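Now for today's protein.

===
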Amino acid sequence: MCVKGDERLAWLRFACVQEFPVSLLLALLQEFQLPETVFEVPQRLLVKSVGEKWARELQSHDVLDKAKECERWLDKTPNAGIVTITDPDYPRLLLQAGVAPAVLFYRGNRSLMSRPSLGIVGTQAPDREGTDNAWNFAKAIGSRGISVATTLNAGVAQWAAQSALKAGVGTIGVAPCGIDRCFPTAQKTLYQQVSKEGLVISAFAPGREFTEDNARNQAELLVGLVGGILVVQSQPHDVNARIAKLAGEWGRDVFVIPGSIHSPQYKGNHRLIRQGATLVESVDDLLER
């Protein structure tokens, strides 16, 4: 469903209020029915519903200006748009996770949001075996009709995304910043390619720069979108191990490729296997789950 006009601007205003609780937004929609109506009612009614702090921010000129900037960017950017939490196209698995952002921003093929997908994560400095595994697993997964989702970081994520792109299969990149930005900036070429041939998605409005806190939201969005996570190479306490832990907590399948006990690249993988993750040696092991 394509959101336009006053309704889209209202959703963008919600998105431009940082950390605005989704639970309050849903309560406002239940009370006032339409998102645009929220911004037409007297402030005293908003204060009664969400408190003085949030009412003041929702109706601030700064938020309205930012929302209009987002609107202009969306209008001039090909294949860019938003999907709201009330949209039937909103990713079902993300809704079920309980941390769904009110608005998702995207560039590319939005239909990929509703297709089965698997997240591939791993170190940003893989060895040759790691890059080969990232490439070959992504290609094999895509050949079975499953999209590949990554953070588009260097290393394992980059190799997996490039493999999926070359194979012509669904490729999803999850951004830790505004959809008009790229982080890390060195990945700009990959980001642009995925936005043209696959899908880049973000919980952050255009203009939002990367912060360390955004990385947590990026991990949650990646895990929320996919049916499972494949860890190619990782350290015991790196971000990939944390993503795998989150995936397990949310009931996602966690798959891990084993490696040499002498290689530091697999220390995190072996730890995850000891904690109950599924050891996989081929894509068939993934599909058996």
In short: The chain has 14 helices and nine strands. The longest helix spans residues 61-76. Residues 171 and 198 are 5 Å apart (CA to CA). The chain has two domains: 5-76, 111-287.
